Amino acid sequence: MNLLTGEYNNTLDDKGRVTFPAKLRSAINQNVLMITKGSGRCLWLFTMEEWDEFQSKITGSASLLKEKSMMVVRRFIAPAQDVEFDKNGRLSIPQSLREYAGLEKDCTILGMAKYVELWDSSAYAKYLEESEESFKDAAEDFDDISF
User: Rounded to the nearest 10 degrees, how much is the dihedral formed by the CA atoms of 95, 70, 130, 3?
Assistant: First the structure.
């Protein structure tokens, strides 16, 4: 799989399908993705290989006896579903996940290197605005990156 990058805007149709950008489809080079709830009210989409690695790390670290770890498993692993591209390059987003992310019409799709985020466009714009100050602080924490 190639590096997944880029920010794209598409619309969700009346049947809950969103056209996936051709550049990302080409980089993924698979017909099935795993989709689940992400943090910040977005959805995360993984190739099956990346999903296996992600869920293995979470479930391998989780303890059935620790409520916080089970909270993470319930949030990310339990709602996960596989979705398949149709012949027009669209993904049908499950209703429960559309509701979680507040997807109605305008969507923003973000390539995040190893996975993809799917946002309601207005929610993403609000997230960017509200997190600007935190972003500046977070960026400073990357003090070991130099050019």
Answer: -70
